[in-house]
Every structure is written in structure tokens, then in C-alpha cells.
Design a protein that fits this description.
Strand content: 15-25%
Bound molecules: alpha-D-galactopyranose
Structural class: alpha/beta
Strand order of the largest sheet: 7-6-5-2-1-11-10-9-8
CATH architecture of the largest domain: Alpha-Beta Barrel
CATH superfamily of the largest domain: Glycosidases
Distance between the termini: 45 Å
Number of helices: 18
Length: 687
């Protein structure tokens, strides 16, 4: 475990915000490198990730190392004052390695081999892969461990992006070892997995396999444990590389996380303590209905992984990516809005994939800081503008975001929730998380994203969306939080199973029934397209349940269908606090009302949040910084006092944020109420 995190601003070399990119000089001639470094200086780039995919260059045949080109690159960057985020180069294997040892190649659940020719074609459990990769890491760190350009070690790349789940025989052996450590005896495993069902009982460890493709449905606990194992396996691999690096270098070590909607195979709550810097990669996902909300959620979750401290955006894109069905280019100013949304939510550095757009390979249509069009391009001008703005915002580095509300988020619950054979495949875990998060964001309520069981004592409001799987110790924290005066909002399909995927009986939601003062006997998911009316005129879709009150009051009830007259949203006074339950998928306006009502009674400070304007505050000891990101096509005015940093003007009453623009106002602490804060009801009452 990393004893202390390295402040991200330290990685810029001058205590300012980091500005950087992935750089793949191996794709270019020496003459281009000179131009690259000159343009990097012009843009204000101060940290560059190199050698991310360098293995085949560095070790062209087993044990033959050629470092001269990388020496040159590091020296060139150093001479230009640019720091290096040095990849260990192990992410993509050279062709000779898998040709020599084909057992390294990963296998899918149905046994298909993932052949070389792409990237990350290695089994996380392969001892052969690890032996060769660690040898390369050792050679690399012994050469560069004390190089003055190197400010950060970048282990592999996006561990588990493609190869998180491998079902080969080597993985099977490793999985069994993991299971033995977890359960000690086969009896305990059989009990935990509920193997009396469908005659699945194991009588020897050797019979146990990864959850490969079956003719029907897999054992859910086996699937869940395989996720846990696979996450641990790659974390173990990270730790093995980090150990080699730390043996020869005192430079901080990290790897780039993928906190994103389409990647869910790493439980980053367990990974985060092992990182010297928390770094995330984030790409706007146009497959989602609301990509900007997902960006904000991912940024807040990354701040949660960093325990509230500043973090590093290791990759994002200046414009389109290449891996979505339609790769939508960013409009004018969108890159700036995306970038500063990350900074507003705690990033102390912004890096892009990548510096110069490739001209070959599958990413040749991926955007870059320097596009195919060259410097006479909108992207390049926006890259220069962003570099200038980050320079202007240097004083923001090191400040933090403070929230009164916590949203409980769990990769483990995600793995369990989204399995097959559940009441409805129309509701996914992340859909619930995003819906509640969006309601909070649109209500101006800043949230911290926390792990189940995390200490909630600093918060007034805890939101628990779809926490299907929960341990007793974790539900106890929430219950105690409410008993001692906190307010909780729990949404449907939470508290259903324990950590072994075993249903908590006696009425749903077993883990939270007493806290919520309700009891549901049965779930009644709705077919797509069906909407039920509620007594405040709003509508509910996708999910309903036959709920009765056991102490709680109904806040909203169904007015139609066979559940007419029964509660849909409830509130229960519990100890000194209150616990709300949202037992259906509310329409966005109704969900916002529930969140603002619960927040108001909890005394949560909200920011005025006009539609289309994203408002987030970072605070330091003396000053706070109000980030105002205008996603709309109209100018907004926002109450503010202090100095606007991007345009550079004093502001006494209000600041204007033109359509699509971003403004950041420095205001002295404490932030006056007139600077955009509304107060919760409790505060108003006690005034
Ligand atoms: C990931 C990888 C990069 C690149 C980008 C493209 O983030 O780490 O190497 O492939 O995706 O979006």
C-alpha cells in the first residue's frame, strides 16, 4: 500500500497543473521528434507518457535490449523541460513472445483464443508472461530509475481493458488457488455458491472451472467470485511490476484506471490504496443518452478513489475517438468544457491520448493534440488555448471539492446486479447510479462517490442507488448514519443479497427493511414502454414492487394498475434521521424532487443550478474557485464576487458566461451565500 500519495501538481515540474499526453515517437522519424518537442513547448505541455507500447522496440528478440532510441527521446524531452511519465511497456506483447509461448494468449468463456495482432493479448495469470514482462521492467527501471526526466512510472496500460477475464486452464488453476484462500474448504465453497441447486456440488477442487460458457445459466456466485478473482489477479500483476520499480527507483508509481460506463472489471476501491497517484482515462461516450453526466460521475468517482485529493486525468480526447460505432467529433469549445469539468471535479492535470495523430494502425482516425491537419486547425488552436488557461488556473492546484452528500458506488454490486436471470434485464446497475447522480447534479448538489461501508460521518445525505449486493457490515454503517441524524435515499433493487449472492429473506429489501420501514413481497417489473401514473402527476417505468408500509409514510403512490393506491416512494423517520426509499424508476423531474426534498431536510448546501450550467466549487485555505461551465446555447449570468480568472476581470455581483464558455471565479473564503449557494431547510430553520 502506498503510504502517502504524491501530489499531482508535483508531476508538472513547477507545482502548476499538469498538461500532457501520450506520445508514441516510435511511429515517427527522428526529424519529427524535434518538431514535436518544439510544439509541445508552445502548447505548454509539461508531462509526456512514453514507452506505453514499447516492448517490441526495446526487446526485439528474447533478452536483446535496444534502449538507444528511448534514451534519445528522454534526453530530448528533458532538455526541453518536459517531464516523462514512463511506461513500463508491458501492455502489448511482442510477436516473438506469443509465438514462443502460445499459452500466454487469453481465452474467452467459450474457449476462443484471442490471437496476437491486436494488443493486450496476454492472460493475467500467465507465469510465462509475467516472467518476461518483469524482466523487461527490471531492465527499464535499472536504466531510467534515476533519469532526471522521469517523474512518474506508468505500469502497463489500462490493465484489464481487453484481457480482464481470461478463462484458460492457467487461469482455472489460479482461480482455484484464490478460492482455496477465500474458502479454505470445499464445504465452505459449496455452501457459499449454493451448489445444492441444479446438482452443482463439487467434490474435488480440480472440478472447479472459471464460469465458462454453459448450455444454460452459470452459477451466479461463481460468476461473481470470478470477477473478484480477476480483479485481484490484475492488481497482483500491478503490484509485481510496482515492486520491481520500487526496488530501483524512488519515482512514484501508478497505472491508468478506466472509471467509465463501458468498463467494469476492476474493483478500483481495492486497487486505489496501491497507487502513488490516482489516474483515470476518460472518453466521452456517445452511446449513452447523457454523456456529460457520465463524465461528471466518472470524475467524482475518481476523486472518491483519491479520497478527495486531486487526481490526474491521464487520457482523454481532443475530439473524436475511433472505437465507438459513430465517432462524434467535439464541437467548438467542447474540449475545453470537458477538460475543465474534470478540473472542476478535482483533476490537477489533463493529459490526452495522444500527442500526434497516427497515420497508420487502428487508431489513425482517433483525434490527437496535433491532428492530421497540422497546426492550422481548430483543434490545435484549442490545444494552445487550453494550455494557456491551465497556466492561468495554476493556483487551483491542490484545492479540493467539498460535498455534503455521498453516493455509495460498488463495482462488486455492479457485477452482481447485471447478471442474468434477474427480474428485469431493462434495468442495469449503472442506469440507476447515473439516474440518481443526474438528479443530484441537476439540482446543484455536489456529491462525493464512496465505497459501501465507507465512513459517512462527514456527510448529511447518503444516496444508495441499486446496491443489490451488500454486506451486513456495510448496511450497518448506513443504518447507524441515519440513526445518528443522517438522511439516506435508497433506490430499488438495493439490499437484496449478501456477499454470496444469497437472498435476504422475510421481505425485500432485506438489508434495509427496518431502516426504511417498508416491506416488499414481490417485484413487478414493467414491460418497456409502459408507464404508471403517480399521485403527483409524474410517471414511473420499468420497475414496481408490491410494497407495504411498516412505519414509513408514503410520499408518492401509484394511481393506476394493479398497484393502485400502494406506495412507490416512502420516507421513514429512524432514530434522529430519515430514510427514503424510491421503489420505482421515477421520471427525471420526480426523481429530482425526491433528491432535493431529501437534501433540503438534511440541510445539504446546494448550488443554484440553472439548466445547462454546470457549477462546481473547489476550495483551498483562503480562496474558493467557482467553476461555471455553460453547456447551453444561451448566455448565463451567475452570482459571484471576486476575480474571474479565464478572462481576467473583477466581478462584484454576477459573472456572465457566454454560450458554450467556461468561467472560473476566485472568491475569498467563506464563499458568500450570494455566490450561488442555496441553503438546506435545516440551516434556514436554525438561522
Ligand atoms: C485507451 C488506451 C490508449 C488509446 C485510447 C483510445 O485509453 O489507453 O492507448 O487506445 O484508449 O481512445
Amino acid at each position: 500500500m502506498s503510504p502517502t500519495r504524491t501530489p499531482v501538481k508535483q508531476l508538472s515540474g513547477n507545482g502548476k497543473l499538469v498538461y500532457g499526453c501520450d506520445y508514441n515517437p516510435e511511429q515517427w522519424d527522428r526529424a519529427v521528434w524535434e518538431e514535436d518537442v518544439r510544439l509541445m513547448n508552445q502548447a505548454g505541455v509539461n508531462l509526456v507518457a512514453v514507452n506505453i507500447f514499447g516492448w517490441a522496440e526495446l526487446e526485439s528478440s528474447p533478452g536483446t535490449y535496444t534502449f538507444e532510441r528511448l534514451d534519445e527521446i528522454l534526453d530530448l524531452l528533458h532538455a526541453s523541460g518536459i517531464g516523462v511519465n514512463l511506461g513500463t511497456g508491458t501492455s502489448s506483447t511482442p510477436a516473438w513472445l506469443t509465438a514462443l509461448y502460445p499459452e500466454i494468449l487469453p481465452r474467452s468463456a467459450s474457449g476462443t483464443v484471442a490471437w496476437p495482432g491486436g494488443r493486450q493479448a496476454w492472460c493475467p495469470s500467465s507465469p510465462r508472461y509475467r516472467e518476461h514482462a518483469l524482466r523487461l521492467v527490471s531492465e527499464t527501471v535499472r536504466r531510467y530509475g534515476a533519469h532526471p526526466a522521469v517523474r512518474l512510472w506508468h505500469v502497463s496500460n489500462e490493465l484489464g481493458c481487453h484481457n480482464a477475464l481470461c478463462y484458460c486452464d492457467v487461469s482455472a488453476t489460479s482461480f482455484r488457488g484464490w478460492l482455496k484462500a477465500r474458502y479454505s474448504t470445499l464445504d465452505a465453497l459449496n455452501k457459499a455458491w449454493g451448489t445444492t441447486f441444479w446438482s452443482q456440488r463439487y467434490s474435488a477442487w480440480e472440478q472447479i472451472l472459471p464460469p465458462r460458457t454453459t448450455i444454460s445459466t452459470n452459477n451466479p456466485t461463481q460468476v461473481l467470485d470470478f470477477h473478484r478473482f480477476s480483479s485481484d489477479e490484475l492488481l497482483g500483476y500491478y503490484q509485481a511490476e510496482a515492486a520491481v520499480l520500487r526496488q530501483h527507483s524512488s519515482v512514484p508509481v501508478t497505472t491508468n484506471f478506466m472509471v467509465a460506463a463501458h468498463i467494469r472489471n476492476q474493483d478500483y476501491w481495492s486497487w486505489a490504496p496501491h497507487m502513488d497517484v490516482i489516474a483515470n482515462d476518460h472518453y466521452l461516450d456517445h452511446r449513452l443518452a447523457d454523456p456529460a453526466t457520465e463524465l461528471a460521475f466518472a470524475a467524482d468517482a475518481t476523486r472518491g478513489l483519491s479520497q478527495g485529493q486531486p487526481w490526474l486525468l491521464m487520457e482523454h480526447s481532443t475530439s473524436a475517438v475511433n472505437w465507438q460505432p459513430r465517432n462524434i467529433a467535439k464541437g467548438p469549445g467542447e474540449m475545453l468544457r470537458n477538460s475543465l469539468a474534470h478540473v472542476a471535479r478535482g483533476a490537477d492535470g489533463l493529459c490526452f491520448f495522444q500527442w500526434r495523430a497516427s497515420v497508420q494502425g487502428s487508431e489513425k482516425f482517433h483525434s490527437a493534440m496535433l491532428p492530421h491537419a497540422g497546426t492550422d486547425s481548430r483543434i490545435w488552436r484549442e490545444v494552445l488555448e487550453l494550455g494557456g488557461i491551465l497556466e492561468t488556473l495554476a493556483e487551483v492546484a491542490g484545492t479540493t471539492v467539498r460535498a455534503d452528500a455521498a453516493l455509495v458506488f460498488s463495482w462488486e454490486a455492479w457485477w452482481a446486479y447485471d447478471q442474468e436471470s434477474h427480474p428485469s434485464s431493462d434495468v442495469g446497475y449503472l442506469d440507476q447510479v447515473h439516474a440518481t447522480y443526474r438528479a443530484l447534479r441537476e439540482s446543484g448538489i455536489t456529491v462525493d462517490v464512496v465505497a459501501p461501508g465507507a465512513d459517512l460521518s462527514d456527510y448529511k445525505l447518503a444516496i444508495v442507488p441499486g446496491l443489490y449486493l451488500v454486506r451486513d457490515s456495510e448496511s450497518a454503517v448506513l443504518t447507524e448514519f441515519v440513526r445518528t441524524g443522517g438522511t439516506a435515499v435508497v433506490t430499488y433493487f438495493s439490499g437484496i443479497v449478501d456477499e454470496n449472492e444469497k437472498v435476504l429473506t422475510g421481505g425485500y429489501p432485506g438489508a434495509f427493511r427496518n431502516l426504511l420501514g417498508i416491506r416488499s413481497e414481490e417485484f413487478y417489473p414493467l414491460p418497456p414502454g409502459q408507464a404508471l401514473a403517480l399521485d403527483n402527476g409524474s410517471t414511473a417505468t420499468l420497475w414496481t414492487e408490491a410494497m407495504r408500509l411498516e412505519g414509513a409514510e408514503a410520499r408518492l403512490s401509484f394511481t393506476a394498475g394493479h398497484l393502485a393506491g400502494t406506495p412507490a416512494v416512502t420516507r421513514n423517520t429512524y432514530g434522529a434521521g430519515a430514510a427514503w426509499y424510491v421503489g420505482t424508476a421515477l421520471d427525471p423531474a420526480a426523481l429530482r424532487t425526491v433528491m432535493t426534498d431529501a437534501a433540503a431536510e438534511a440541510g445539504v448546501r446546494a448550488l443554484i443550478a440553472p439548466e445547462g450550467l454546470e457549477v462546481v466549487v473547489r476550495s483551498g485555505t483562503d480562496n474558493s474557485y467557482v467553476f461555471l461551465i455553460n453547456h447551453s446555447e444561451e448566455e448565463h449570468k451567475y452570482p459571484a464576487h471576486g476575480r474571474e480568472l479565464i478572462v481576467g476581470e473583477d466581478v462584484s455581483n454576477a459573472v456572465a458566461i457566454p454560450a458554450g464558455a467556461v468561467r472560473v471565479v476566485r472568491t475569498a473564503n467563506p464563499v458568500p451565500q450570494t455566490a450561488g449557494f442555496t441553503t438546506g431547510q435545516k440551516d434556514v430553520e436554525s438561522d
